[in-house]
Structure formats: structure tokens, C-alpha cells
Amino acid sequence: MSKDGWTALEEAPTFALAALFADEPDRLSRLAIEEAGIRFDFAKTHLSRAHVGAFLALADERGLAARRDAMFAGEIVNPTEGRAAEHGAERGQGAPDSVARAAGRHARMRALIDAIEADAFGPVRHILHIGIGGSALGPKLLIDALGRRAGRYDAAIVANIDGAAFEEAITGFDPHATLLVVASKTFTTGETLMNARSALQWLEESGVDDPYGRTIALTAAPAKAIEFGIDETRILPFAESVGGRYSLWSSIGFPAALALGWDTFESLLEGAAAMDRHFRFAPLAANAPLLAAFVDRYYANLRGAETRAVFAYDERLRLLPAYLQQLEMESNGKSASLDGGAVGRATAPIVWGGVGTDAQHATFQLLHQGTHLVPVEFVAAIEPGHGLADDHHGELLINCFAQGAALMAGRASDDPHRFYPGDRPSTTILLDRLDPPTLGALLAFYEHRAFANAALLGLNPFDQFGVELGKAMAKQLDDHSAADFDPSTRALLARAFGEAGA
Ligand code: F6P
How many CB atoms sit inside 10 A of residue 310's CB? Predict the structure, then answer.
């Protein structure tokens, strides 16, 4: 009887990184993939040739290619919510009908941007975007990454219900030149609706004639936005089959498209489409998102690593770790498999990280000498994104490469305090440049990596029921029904709000 995929993997021996480089002379050509202006180098991980073979067998056993094709065909791949997952269609990769509908919605989005630029909304210098989770993190990342020099408007993104976030966002904004954008797939999210009401009140109290007339909604629930008071002509819908954390390509990307220009947004979509094609059509053994998922599974399931650290050696990508936290932890931080049984093995790692070189002087101590096994991911761009002399960028890249090499090589010493064990894994993702298409390809790579991980684990990456319980309990407290809560929570309520509770 042939072994199942996981058993074969568990039995495959693990070798030290140095031994793998010595024994597998073709390692770089197999494990470093160039695609869409990005080099994905998985060579400094412990994936041996045997591991890759066993993971390919597991992918086959799990029907990964068929699941991928079903996703791009617009089939129901999110069965717990009875939905397709059609973020690919937003960039032209999907079922023809879905692609056509997405193109139609993009045309509306573009027409609205043209109207704003032609002063149909009066003067607009500031964009106040309100949304949370997937309705905030994508546009925020895009504007931060690509808008440092080219941003045509000041854009502030408010997510948190903490009024401090709102106050900070409007500081320096002229209400008479502010466009309000309310982004919510469901248009029911408490934080977003409360912040939207505060924004409308701010506009009104500042003497803006028609605050609703300066408000645009981005949503998959247009009826709810209309109920909220936003006119249909200023609602940019997107498909329910586009998940929140996969939605920056849809009308949720509107503030980025406005701030950075339509051409930039379109190039971003084209870059993502290039990665979609790679994921769909490249041989599985040379498929970047798939190999990345093999690395993820190897460390999580065969070596017990509980986290993965992502360091952007590029200030423009400083929000990438936060973006990936939602993408990966909300997608795959689950215990139930597609058929409702237990997955029975570790799922999404805890994703954390920061920027290099800052992190070298803070968390890297643990990476080099600590007791945890942490697969590290470096992300950098060959071209600088600033006008300072090249030596800054040269040093930045050298530091990045040196860290990966040091983690792997380690250093012997008789002094235990100065001993570096080495043999510590890293992946390097090196962009030619951080331009719109390359960023699009990079983000699509991460989406497909999450999908591939889910397929290997047999879980649904597109629902997020884990976030519901806390929301429901907050609502219960809001409704003053604290009696059912535990003594600790009741005491906190009494301390904060007095005996009567919230
Ligand atoms: O609470 C989780 C979540 O549902 C995310 O999945 C989503 O991106 C976010 O809330 C915001 O939801 P919405 O876009 O519907 O306001």
C-alpha cells in the first residue's frame, strides 16, 4: 500500500542547510524562481529534493490543482458561506461572466475618479477613507507603498473605533475639501458605521452643505449603503464572491486608485494577473506560491515552528507584515477541515515582522541565538525608492543578504554567549523594483500561497467565523446584558462603567 502524503513527508530525513547545498548542486535552479520581476529564493530552507517530491504528491492527493482551477472557474470554493472566491476576476483571471462584470464595475470606478478630477465634487484635496480589516489594510498598504512621492491627495485611513484614530486622521484636513469614503463589504461593521457617522457629523458641524453628497460607499451590499443614506450614484459595488482580505483589487481599492491615479491601479491589476497566470499554468514543481506553501507546511507541520517572521527591507513595505497577518491568519487560522472534521495538525503560523534594518537592532537577537525555530522571510527591492545617494540602498540590501547568510552559516565559538548555531532558515523575495505591477504580483503571490496552504491542509481559507463570537458578545454587552458574563468581565465592566455596566 502506498503511503499517504503526510506520512511520506514525516518519514523524509531532514538535512542541514549546508549539506543540502553540498548534495544538491541544482538547488538554486530548482528553488529560486524568477517571475513577474521578482526572485523568490527558497534555497536557504530545509526543503530537500525528497521533501519537494513528497509535497507534490500531497498536493496531488489533496487535489490542489483541481481546487485552484475551480477557484478560477468561479465555482463554489467557500462552501461554508456558499460562495465562489473571485478576486482573480477583478484582474481579468476568472470565469468570463465574472471578469466582464468586474470590468464593468472598474469602468464605473474610473468614471467616478474622472468626475472627481473634473471637480464634480468641488475641491477635493483630502480623502478620508473609513473601513477596517480587508476594507482598510489593502488600500493603506498601496498608498503607503506607492504614494510616497506620487500621491495626488492626502489620504487618511481610519479603521479603529478608538476616537483617537479618527481625530488623528482629520488633523490638518479641510472639511470643505475632504471626500469621505466608507468601505465595508457588508455595510454592517460596527466600527465603520460609527466612524462614518462621526465623519458626517464633522463635515456637517464644519458647515459643509451636503455631507452625504461628498460621501462614496464601497460595498458588496449596496442596499445597506442606500439605507445608510448614500445615493446610489455614489456607490461603487463589488461582488460578494470577493472576500474582504482579497478585495483591494475591487472597488475597495478606490482611494488608492484616486490617490495614485488610474494607470497605477491598472498596472497593479496587470501585475497581479501575471502572478495569477503563473499560479495557474506554471509546472507545480516551479510554482512560486506552491513552493512557498511547501516551506510553510514543512516548518509548521514537520518542525513545529509556530511563527513566521517577515521583514521588509524597504520602508515602503512597512505595512506588509500587518497586511499579511490578516491575509494569512484570517484565512488559515482554523482548526476545522472542509468536511467539518479536525484538521489535526498546525495550520496558519503566527505571522509577525517589521522592517530591516530596524528589526536587526531589536528582534534579531532571538532569531540568531534564541530557542525558537523561526522561518524568516526577507522582502527587498533592487532599485531604491528614494533620492539619497546609492550607498544607503547598497547598505540596506547588503544588510538584508548578510542576515540570511548569517542565519544559515552561524559561527562557532568556545564562548556560549558568542556562539551562533546557524542552520536557521530564510526565504528571500527580491523585487527588481517596487512599482505597481511588481507590487500587484507580490500581493497576488501571497494570496495564492495562502490558498495553497489551505489546500494542503484541507481547509477553507475564505470564511472567517472566528471573528464573530467576540463581535456578538460586544453587542450583548452593548445591549446591557452583562448578567451572563463571567465574574472577571463583570468586574471590569463595573470598574469602567459603574455598577450598571455598559
Ligand atoms: O471582522 C472580520 C471582517 O469580517 C474581515 O474579514 C473584514 O475584512 C472586516 O471584518 C471588515 O468587514 P466589512 O468590509 O464588511 O466592513
Answer: 25
Instruction: For residue 81, give the amino acid letter.
Output: E
β-strands 126-130, 178-183 pairing: parallel
CA of 479 to the centre of ligand 1 (A): 22
Query: Quick one: pLDDT at residue 151?
Result: 63
Decide: 189 in ligand 1 pocket, CB within 6 A.
yes
| Distant-in-sequence, close-in-space partners of 122: CB < 8 Å, separation ≥ 6 | 176, 177, 214
Res. 498 pLDDT band, cuts 50 70 90? confident
Residue 420 backbone dihedrals phi, psi, to 5 degrees: -115, 115
361 is catalytic: yes
Nearest one of 295, 396, 404 to 355, comparing CA atoms: 396
Distance 152 CA to ligand 1 centre (A): 28
Q: Can you name the residues that pair with 378 across neighbouring β-strands?
A: 311, 428
Cα dihedral: 192, 197, 198, 201 (round 10): 160
Please write the tens of the pLDDT for every residue from 1-20: 456 889 999 999 999 999 99
Alpha-carbon separation of residue 354 from 14, 263, 442 (angstroms): 29, 30, 17
Average pLDDT, the chain: 96
Query: What mean pLDDT is predicted for residues 73-79?
Result: 98
Query: Are the C-beta atoms of 466 and 84 separated by less than 8 Å?
Result: no
By DSSP bridging, strand 154-158 and strand 126-130 are parallel
Active site residue 392: no
Q: Which runs of consecutive H residues, i.e. helices, occur in 206-261?
A: 222-228, 254-260
